[in-house]
Amino acid sequence: MESINDICGIKALLNNKVAGERPGFLSEEEVKGVRKFHATNEGYEATPLVSLECLAEKLGVSKIYVKDESKRFGLNAFKGLGATYAIAKLLCEKLEVDIESIDYNYFKLPHVKEKIKDMVFVTATDGNHGRAVAWAAAQLGCKSIVYMPKGSSLRRLQHIKDTGADAFITDVNYDDAVRLAKKKADDIGGALVQDTAWEGYEKVPNWITQGYTTMAAEAIDQIKSDGSIRPTHIFLQAGVGSFAGGILGYFANVFKDEPPITVIAEPENAACIYKSALADDGKPHSVTGDLNTIMAGLACGEPNTVTWPILRDFAQVFVSCPDYVAAKGMRLLANPIGDDKKVISGESGAVGLGLISLLLEKEELKTLKEKLHLNENSIIICFSTEGDTDPEQYEAIISQTDKQ
Ligand SMILES: Cc1ncc(COP(=O)(O)O)c(C=O)c1O
Fold first, then answer.
1. pTM higher than the cut 0.85
2. How many domains does the chain have?
3. For position 22, what pLDDT does the model report?
4. Would you say residue 200 lies in a domain?
5. What ligand 1 atom has the least distance to the C-alpha of 129?
6. Is residue 125 lining ligand 1, measured as CB closer than 6 Å?
7. Same domain, yes or no, for 95 and 228?
8. Among the three residues 137, 164, 194, which one is the final residue of a domain in this structure?
9. What was the pLDDT predicted at 402?
10. Is 303 in the same domain as 271?
11. From the CB of 237, is ligand 1 less than 6 Å away?
12. Is there a domain that residue 102 lies in?
């Protein structure tokens, strides 16, 4: 690992040995099945891929694409992709049917509903995943219980309650809230639907990770329809790394010969993927404490043990970002230049674009820009994984001006 440290508060680690075994559970074949299943949900629609032509021209690259996940299933974030797929797989196990042989509406048949109505799904969340679990459970007539870490947004709590879950803000951090959810599921015989894996708990989080790939598959088609062959650069944000690992694992399978250069961005106070890369011993490492950041969705201290090796083997750069990077991205997307379309992007959704703009604009970050081969031929994609999931905070941030 090569360190490029503390420029404008940004710390980066360059991975000099990108290579590894491509994850079979994120192969093109697997992803095709996941997408086919999602498409049978009546709320399914591919989310927009917004091409910021004017910003790309201003920043001196060929394309900047933003996948707008605020439009996913009416949930204002991408997480419904993981929750619906994992819950469907859990129900298939219970009902002893193959997911290939059914579609989403199967679970709504009266005789099937009768068999699943007492299922309780339990999870911990900083907001988006819990809302998605509550939504998926409610759609199928099942119950859900959701725990949130201390300091969670009351608006996000209310959204989850309104979606039908029993939801609580606890007095522990995200990782301990996950342990609470596990204990509750064990105590009541419920099913834990957690969006992170640890040793001995891999099956459900792997289904969640597979669920996320639908957005990558959509994006590849959309990029091609726009006339680009493939992205040269991908910017992915990480909490526990399930989202980033799922997308990167799939891209590594699709673009075997020429994989895009991938950057993983995290908040500086919850940078467990960065810390794991820094340790350089191949293993995941945790960050503890309050994990304070405006990027609530990324405030996670313990890496997913299944997706960490994918990030370790296939990402070129790990970046620890101060909060201002996310705020800058939010404002750029909220106030587009020229004919570019506006994207409403929340704190955890906008850090990728914030980082892209800083890398392309800041003289101090020139070395990193060059090491990443960012230039006029670059076709960049990032994922705005949430909209204004805390509207008051969103408005407060976009009404401020950039400090850097
Ligand atoms: C909006 C948003 N983006 C990104 C992520 C990161 O996902 P992961 O924890 O899988 O890294 C989350 C996780 O909750 C999120 O809510």
1. yes
2. 2
3. 95
4. no
5. 14
6. no
7. no
8. 194
9. 82
10. yes
11. yes
12. yes
